[in-house]
Amino acid sequence: METDEISEELQNIEFEIHDVEEQIRELIEKQEKLYERRSELQVLLETCPIDVKDGSAPTNVQAEDWSRSFDWDSQAEDIRFNVFGISSYRPNQREIINAVMSGRDVLVIMAAGGGKSLCYQLPAILRQGIALVVSPLLSLIQDQVMGLVASGIPARMLTSTTSKEDEKFIYKALEKGEEDLKLLYVTPEKVSKSKRFMSKLEKCHHAGRLSLISIDEAHCCSQWGHDFRPDYKNLSILKTQFPNVPVVALTATATMKVQNDLIEMLHIPKCVKFVSTVNRPNLFYMVREKSSVGKIVVDEIAKYIKESYPNKESGIVYCFSRKECEQVASELCERGISADYYHADMDVNAREKVHMRCYTFTFMQVAFGMGINKPDVRFVIHHSLSKSMETYYQESGRAGRDGLPSECLLFFRSADMPRQSSMVFHENSGLQNLYDIVQYCQSKRQCRRSAFFRHFAEPLQECNGMCDNCAFSSEIKEVDASGHSILLISLVREMQEKDQRVTMLQLVDRVKNKQKQLDFELKREEMEQLVVQLILDRVLKEEFQHTAYATNSYVTVGPRANQVLQGKKIIKMDVTSTSKDVDGYRKSSKQGVTSGLEFKLDELRKELASHDKGIFPHSVLSGQQISSISAHLPNSIEEAKHPNNEVLNEEESSEIRPPRKKLKKANKQVIMVDSSNDESD
Ligand SMILES: Nc1ncnc2c1ncn2[C@@H]1O[C@H](COP(=O)(O)OP(=O)(O)OP(=O)(O)O)[C@@H](O)[C@H]1O
Ligand SMILES: [Mg+2]
């Protein structure tokens, strides 16, 4: 054998060994994930005999019966109704209150807006002494305290913004118990950093006046959660120092791993756990393609708000950065939408102003940022994607906390991914968390709701057409993009060999001109989509490089690239041929404009939906159904009477969803509608 041949074979073997090692690593990773999911499902099976009839299950049923009658029942009822103005409990609230009142540690997992606050605020009033509430954000604390004080409940906060005078009042209340104080809100920093505060708290406890400890947004304790706060880690000190005081940990979002983690972190191994479903049946989830031109995105947001919410209902727009918040707010104002921005680091007075307007006037239409505690937020728009499914669930969950129908709209563009990834790659599972939400955004078929169930390891529930993928159908084609993928990998490899770096957008630019040799060409956005998909599939990989000003994300070859190059892995991708849109029928209309019939059907569905505040117009009749009916519009009364040739055929008519209560009526009326284009009536 020639030396050259030996070297070549050796090199090939090296490649193959590398390849096999990668595959083994992948399989081990997969095995770990499967183990984890298996144990999640086993726990789920053991702990929750599932009953999803009323949409409020699943619920963890504990051995104790927390719904039986207790001594404090009538007193609790009285406070619930007369202090909080709440006429009946929501699922699990009464049971949780009973467990806390019985002195147990409690872990509460309840959807955003589910009513967690009552679960500790009511016992705080009922029990003797002062309740300590730990909450991560100043803005959330301000909201809560303002709300409580407005209801006549003595609540205070001790934060960096507290005046000397207030501080004196609080310390006196803790130490001597003479002042009127029932709930004291603090940030976790106070617990971990202020010795003075802890010594006063100790005195309060010693005198038997520390009634309970509530840890809101408890997922912040776990580094596996989406919003880990190092100061939350030190909260274990509370249970150690005050072992007989009940701890109530509450969060809207916690995977099984996070739940177990926070039980351990907070030292509450014997806690009673109440897990309610993550489902928010009143929220309509949708994702829209985001234009690369910033101005167009704002135009679209403005149009959406004006058309969907002409009565100036309130909403929140989440943006990537503070600067973007301020900019988008001012651009929306220019388009006639009353918008203001709001973020946690704003000066307290400015934030207070936004708060006050938010509560007092309905013209406060759009608020930017986090922590707005309004129950009647009708829409939450994400100008940029969140960093994880959990964060998105939490943020979008600010919509419709009053239980009325509300919408969650996320604008997604592939190029937003590297922007986020360079921020989160150093976090624990940061990249994987981001890739999960990117997968959610990229999906053109999967029910959005089911993605949440899967993520939080909960059995699937009906979506009832309350997400874009379930409500509207668009033509989706699956194409074989293996050729394009090979081209991409080769390009990246070539550049890597020359020690050059390439960003996602640069890569797409380069490959655009080279794809002419292939069977078909992908549009720019489709090529971006493919690169993202390849990164999620680990065929390509993101790598990060720090510069003096920022961290940049570059695309490199991933562990599965060889499988694609060798033809062992076929890359399929979904391409949309018609756009999916809330008002999709406008785009798919034959004439390219809305016909009179379509317009009238649209008006009709809005009218029917308005009779019943619990449903959206598109739940009465989807845009696609409107198009379908219009397409079969008879030309004359005669034709309508004998619709032999022109009636909906079996297949098409079956596209119309099973009639709901209202839909039957709508269908009848649809046939009778005047079809002329003049809209004089
Ligand atoms: N039993 C009830 N009946 C009617 N309204 C309720 C009930 N319980 C709570 N609410 C209301 O629901 C809204 C949301 O409650 P709360 O702020 O406690 O939600 P949460 O579970 O803490 O949500 P988040 O995770 O977003 O903080 C509030 O306006 C509250 O007054
Ligand atoms: Mg809350």
From TrEMBL:
<feature type="domain" description="Helicase ATP-binding">
    <location>
        <begin position="97"/>
        <end position="272"/>
    </location>
</feature>
<dbReference type="GO" id="GO:0046872">
    <property type="term" value="F:metal ion binding"/>
</dbReference>
<dbReference type="GO" id="GO:0005524">
    <property type="term" value="F:ATP binding"/>
</dbReference>
<keyword id="KW-0067">ATP-binding</keyword>
<dbReference type="Pfam" id="PF00270">
    <property type="entry name" value="DEAD"/>
</dbReference>
<dbReference type="GO" id="GO:0009378">
    <property type="term" value="F:four-way junction helicase activity"/>
</dbReference>
<keyword id="KW-0413">Isomerase</keyword>
<dbReference type="Pfam" id="PF00271">
    <property type="entry name" value="Helicase_C"/>
</dbReference>
<dbReference type="Pfam" id="PF16124">
    <property type="entry name" value="RecQ_Zn_bind"/>
</dbReference>
<dbReference type="GO" id="GO:0003677">
    <property type="term" value="F:DNA binding"/>
</dbReference>
<protein>
    <recommendedName>
        <fullName>ATP-dependent DNA helicase</fullName>
        <ecNumber>5.6.2.4</ecNumber>
    </recommendedName>
</protein>
<keyword id="KW-0347">Helicase</keyword>
<dbReference type="InterPro" id="IPR032284">
    <property type="entry name" value="RecQ_Zn-bd"/>
</dbReference>
<dbReference type="GO" id="GO:0000724">
    <property type="term" value="P:double-strand break repair via homologous recombination"/>
</dbReference>
<dbReference type="InterPro" id="IPR014001">
    <property type="entry name" value="Helicase_ATP-bd"/>
</dbReference>
<feature type="domain" description="Helicase C-terminal">
    <location>
        <begin position="297"/>
        <end position="442"/>
    </location>
</feature>
<keyword id="KW-0547">Nucleotide-binding</keyword>
<dbReference type="InterPro" id="IPR027417">
    <property type="entry name" value="P-loop_NTPase"/>
</dbReference>
<dbReference type="InterPro" id="IPR018982">
    <property type="entry name" value="RQC_domain"/>
</dbReference>
<feature type="region of interest" description="Disordered">
    <location>
        <begin position="640"/>
        <end position="681"/>
    </location>
</feature>
<feature type="coiled-coil region">
    <location>
        <begin position="3"/>
        <end position="44"/>
    </location>
</feature>
<dbReference type="GO" id="GO:0016592">
    <property type="term" value="C:mediator complex"/>
</dbReference>
<dbReference type="GO" id="GO:0005737">
    <property type="term" value="C:cytoplasm"/>
</dbReference>
<dbReference type="GO" id="GO:0016887">
    <property type="term" value="F:ATP hydrolysis activity"/>
</dbReference>
<dbReference type="InterPro" id="IPR011545">
    <property type="entry name" value="DEAD/DEAH_box_helicase_dom"/>
</dbReference>
<keyword id="KW-0175">Coiled coil</keyword>
<keyword id="KW-0378">Hydrolase</keyword>
<comment type="similarity">
    <text>Belongs to the helicase family. RecQ subfamily.</text>
</comment>
<keyword id="KW-0539">Nucleus</keyword>
<dbReference type="GO" id="GO:0043138">
    <property type="term" value="F:3'-5' DNA helicase activity"/>
</dbReference>
<dbReference type="GO" id="GO:0005694">
    <property type="term" value="C:chromosome"/>
</dbReference>
<dbReference type="InterPro" id="IPR036388">
    <property type="entry name" value="WH-like_DNA-bd_sf"/>
</dbReference>
<dbReference type="InterPro" id="IPR004589">
    <property type="entry name" value="DNA_helicase_ATP-dep_RecQ"/>
</dbReference>
<dbReference type="InterPro" id="IPR001650">
    <property type="entry name" value="Helicase_C-like"/>
</dbReference>
<dbReference type="GO" id="GO:0006260">
    <property type="term" value="P:DNA replication"/>
</dbReference>
<keyword id="KW-0479">Metal-binding</keyword>
<keyword id="KW-0238">DNA-binding</keyword>
